[in-house]
Design a protein that fits this description.
Layout (H helix, E strand, L loop, with lengths): L9 H23 L3 E3 L1 H10 L9 E6 L3 H11 L4 E4 L13 E4 L2 E3 L13 E9 L3 H19 L9 H31 L4 E3 L9 E2 H4 L3 E5 L2 E5 L3 H9 L18 E3 L2
Parallel strand pairs: 2-6
Antiparallel strand pairs: 1-2, 3-4, 4-6, 5-11, 6-7, 7-8, 9-10
Helix pairs in contact: 1-3, 2-7, 4-5
Length: about 260
């Protein structure tokens, strides 16, 4: 399997640089008492490969949305100088609705990020919270993601005219109170029924994350080091990927297919 990321290759250097990001985030979360856990392909790599999926070129963790402000403050205060906290407040052209921790001595050349302040290798910090059900979440997401993207200028949208852009943005501000009310009611409902389902209202991700699979978080090995993972990683991954231990066909093994540069 190391034909994808042999020692000294650009991909392997990139993976080790992302590992450094994860180590620093782990220090912050443990010091601040913030629960986090490896997610998606990063968790899959931990379970199936004891580290990175050999062809993977990004990393994902989850934290609870309620811990977002505390995490942001701690990251801004204590990240080392080779890393940067990135969201729409620190980089106006950041197109994601969740934050990233970026490496400042590398380049991850996504075409859509070429206008951004920070463009290095990154760790995605996915913000999750209780939702009443995936059906309710999907309904709210249809409005939430569109309205929020317009209000915060997430990403670049081509408009046929300046007038159309003004009208769409005005509509977003008009709709936002209703979207906020919908989301608030859904959050209250999820808390009352003690829903076991967690997800993100702001993006369409079809796989639920279940509280009973996550907490209490426990350490899991990744690249010879221990990081925080869900309590039941097998159940977590099965819901997300199905038969996750079976390798995909060779023609489906790949990352973002973006040019990567890693600087000394």
């Amino acid at each position: 399997m190391n034909q994808y990321n042999p020692e000294g290759s650009t991909l392997r250097k990139a993976q080790l640089r992302m590992l450094h990001i994860l180590e620093e985030v782990d220090k912050i979360c443990r010091r601040e008492g913030i629960d986090y856990w490896l997610d998606a392909g990063t968790l899959l790599g931990a379970v199936r490969h004891k580290g990175f999926i050999p062809w993977d070129d990004d990393m994902d963790i989850c934290i609870l949305k309620k811990d977002y402000k505390r995490f942001k403050a701690a990251a801004l205060a204590s990240l080392p100088p080779d890393l940067a906290y990135q969201d729409w407040t620190t980089d106006p052209n950041h197109f994601e609705m969740s934050p990233r921790i970026r490496d400042l001595h590398s380049l991850f050349d996504q075409p859509e990020s070429r206008c951004q302040k920070y463009r290095g290798l990154f760790l995605d910090v996915i913000l999750v919270e209780r939702v009443p059900s995936m059906r309710v979440k999907k309904f709210i997401c249809f409005f939430y993601r569109r309205v929020s993207r317009e209000m915060h200028n997430y990403g670049k949208v081509a408009y046929k005219s300046a007038l159309r852009r003004v009208l769409v943005k005005a509509a977003a501000y008009i709709l936002w109170p209703f979207v906020w009310l919908m989301t608030s009611i859904a959050r209250l409902h999820a808390a009352i029924i003690k829903s076991d389902v967690m997800s993100r209202y702001y993006t369409h991700f079809p796989s639920p994350r279940c509280i009973s699979d996550i907490f209490p978080c426990k350490d899991i090995e990744f690249e010879g080091k221990m990081f925080s993972g869900p309590a039941h990683p097998d159940r977590y991954l099965e819901k997300m990927f199905g038969d996750y231990m079976t390798l995909p066909p060779e023609n489906e093994r790949g990352g973002h297919y973006c040019p990567i540069e890693v600087y000394d």
